[in-house]
Structure prediction request, 45 residues.
Amino acid sequence: MKIFVLNWQFKVLFYVDEQRTLRITVEDLFLNELIVTNQAVVQLL
Prediction:
């Protein structure tokens, strides 16, 4: 499952991997760079 959140400056991607870990990637669209890449947020039960 992937969820995108987009506003005028940031693109945020949330997804759950094979080990049921919620991960996040954040891209700054203004600077055109990744701020957070594939960062684990929480382990789901």
Summary: Residues 16 and 22 are 4 Å apart (CA to CA). The chain has one domain: 2-43.
